[in-house]
């Protein structure tokens, strides 16, 4: 079996103004949909970041995959490295962590190749990753402070302005009713730490049995984080990236018992060693989009087991192909014992046939394949590609977007 054609289609999906330490989400989020076709008529799907550097990397690599055997992942990696000799990162300069373009591009094509292999042997993708230890995948509700959307031309708002503890709790109630989530992750680093603490204490009152987390993405100094940890003692299951950089995380970690998680200071295999030596974090967030695909994400789980670190799962704004891949990775990672993050409820579109998968009690069933177990809706792909061509957004810049809401906004990390 050989690859005969690779299509990379950029799409834009209406987004809503979700706030974070860096600013706020632009009016659309960008993804790239990958279709890898083989000489025996199979098509493997993938969903990758769609911002400029990733897209260019995917487009440059795509033609070099012709003739490749989908079973040869080492050769895939080699071809990606040859196609992108200058390497570099994928994120905008305002990002707090970066990912190597070769890792991100490899990851995206790896999923499509695994999808082909699953289709060829008529097995779900999780079987190619070593088998499923769980088939019901729990997701946490991802709560955001947000502005009311100003410009509705590209798509509707979801839930209006949410800029206070009470409105945030109302958001959680709505998500709870719609999706049945059993845990909450709050994107912090937006309001004053006191208000974010108040939000979590109110969530605790209303949802006494839910697991709670907060992710201020480096917004707090070590003394501020220490204060918050005291106020939230016994309230959080873990605290994600409270401080900026490995050393600040290690300094905080040395003074507290609360577990620290990260998707900012450990984003490559090499960084695990430093994190363990410094005891900077106790939980690493997995993500098949940059941890070298689904096989890399499963390897991450194994390394974390050996290093006595917990594993959780990171998310960015995404659609159903990524959601399916996340389910397969979660199914095949025994020590992924925390509810996975997902931005899924924050969009209304889909590009897979059958529409949007339905969450039950905050969980999804892993698709039973073959491969990823999802099919592309070509019409939806065309519509979202059309939106990409007309939307003025070709890169993600949350700081720039924030100026539309707060004209004198200055990005500062840490801020408090
Ligand atoms: O969507 O604003 C966002 C998040 O902040 C996202 O960009 C992060 O990558 O969810 C992510 C995180 O856990 O840091
Ligand atoms: Mg995070």
Task: Summarize the structure in short.
The chain folds into two domains: 3-122 and 378-391, Enolase-like, N-terminal domain (Enolase-like, domain 1); 128-365, Enolase-like C-terminal domain (TIM Barrel, Alpha-Beta Barrel), CATH 3.20.20.120. It is 35% helix and 16% strand. It is built from 13 helices and 14 strands.
Poorly predicted tracts of residues: none
Mean pLDDT: 97
Helix/strand structural class: alpha/beta
Spatial separation of the terminal alpha carbons: 56 Å
CATH class of the largest domain: Alpha Beta
Task: Give the biggest sheet.
Answer: 7 strands, parallel
- Count of distinct strands: 14
The CATH superfamily name of the largest domain is Enolase-like C-terminal domain
The percent range for strand residues is 15-25%
Shape: globular
**Count of discrete alpha- or pi-helical segments spanning 4 or more residues:** 13
Please provide a written account of the structure:
The structure is a single chain. The chain has 416 residues and is α/β, with parallel strands linked by helices. The chain folds into two domains: 3-122 and 378-391, Enolase-like, N-terminal domain (Enolase-like, domain 1); 128-365, TIM Barrel. The protein is built from 13 helices and 14 strands. It has helices at 52-61, 73-83, 101-121, 125-128, 165-179, 193-206, 222-231, 246-253, 269-278, 293-306, 320-331, 378-390, 398-402; strands at 3-14, 19-20, 23-24, 28-38, 43-49, 136-138, 141-144, 183-187, 211-215, 238-240, 260-262, 283-286, 310-313, 363-365. The chain has a seven-stranded parallel β-sheet with strand order 7-8-9-10-11-12-13, with helices on one face. α1 (52-61) crosses α3 (101-121), α5 (165-179) crosses α6 and α10 packs parallel to α11. The termini are far apart. 54% of the residues are buried. The mean pLDDT is 97. The site of D-glucarate (GKR) has 11 residues, from loops.
